[in-house]
Design brief:
About 10% of the residues lie in helices and about 35% in strands. The chain is built from three helices and 19 strands. It starts with a strand and ends with a strand.
């Protein structure tokens, strides 16, 4: 089992940034889901309600976030925090840095809805519930866990049941690997990828976002969610891929092996 692709999503629900190597910290992949858009009430927005977010180009580096909106490009520099905003992501409420209004106005105009651009900082402190008393991991604006992995064999299994196959981009994973069998990751408890050990996995519940074309931002029908729900449903949740918490910092590269430690 080896890593095939690496990606981060610097702005939650915008396009992926492909990587040649991934630096993982206690928060997950460096630069992943560091920025987010919120509505007038401070609640996060995503492709679930604003599918055009799939067409926003992003690039994160040490200096900040570059954003491309069709033919408009601008850079959001990392600056000392001068303004904060209380924001809600699922059931969590945290303090985030509020970026300058000019950037929020550009994004609001592009998406045709009022929104504000915020950044996760040291003051945000979104904690995850850990299974051990002495470990309190933190996650930025990702859903559920800091990192998601996707098995190519699982995708091949799904595509064999579809009239029109879908690509890996529908599932917005950080690490895509070539496994040995479909959905084998369901039983894993602790793994090592490159230099990093991951544990406390959680199945990744899927929603309407996997029906969105990640190039156009358009929904072309109920697939692949409809088919996936016929054989990967657990209660009300449709599952594919898994979410993990890193135990240490390190680097992951394409072709790094994945080793089960449980």
């Amino acid at each position: 089992m080896k890593v095939q692709e690496l990606a981060i999503y610097p702005l939650k629900s915008a396009r992926a940034q492909k990587l040649k190597e991934m630096r993982v910290t206690a928060f997950g992949p460096e630069g992943d889901r560091e920025w987010m858009l919120v509505d007038a009430d401070g609640k996060f927005i995503s492709q679930r309600t604003h599918s055009k977010m799939a067409t926003i180009d992003v690039l994160s580096d040490g200096e900040g976030l570059s954003i491309g909106l069709n033919k408009m490009f601008f850079k959001v520099p990392r600056r000392p925090v001068t303004r904060t905003l209380s924001v809600q992501i699922w059931n969590d409420t945290v303090e985030a840095a509020l970026e300058p209004d000019l950037f929020s106005q550009a994004l609001s105009q592009y998406l045709e809805t009022p929104c504000r651009l915020v950044r996760y900082t040291a003051l945000s402190k979104r904690k995850l519930q850990s299974l051990t008393a002495d470990w309190s991991p933190e996650v930025r604006f990702a859903d559920g866990r800091p990192l998601q992995i996707l098995n190519l064999k699982s995708l091949e299994d799904l595509n064999s049941k579809l009239e029109s196959p879908v690509g890996t981009d529908r599932f917005r994973a950080n690490i895509i690997f070539d496994g040995t069998t479909a959905f084998e990751e369901d039983t894993w408890k602790r793994i090592q990828i490159g230099e990093v050990i991951f544990s406390q996995p959680k199945p990744c519940a899927r929603c309407i976002m996997i029906t969105m074309d990640q190039k156009t931002g358009l929904r072309e029908g109920p697939e692949p969610l409809k088919t996936l729900s016929t054989y990967r449903k657990d209660g009300s949740k449709v599952l594919m891929g898994s979410l993990w918490i890193p135990e240490n910092a390190g680097v992951i590269r394409p072709q790094d092996p994945i080793t089960r430690l449980d």
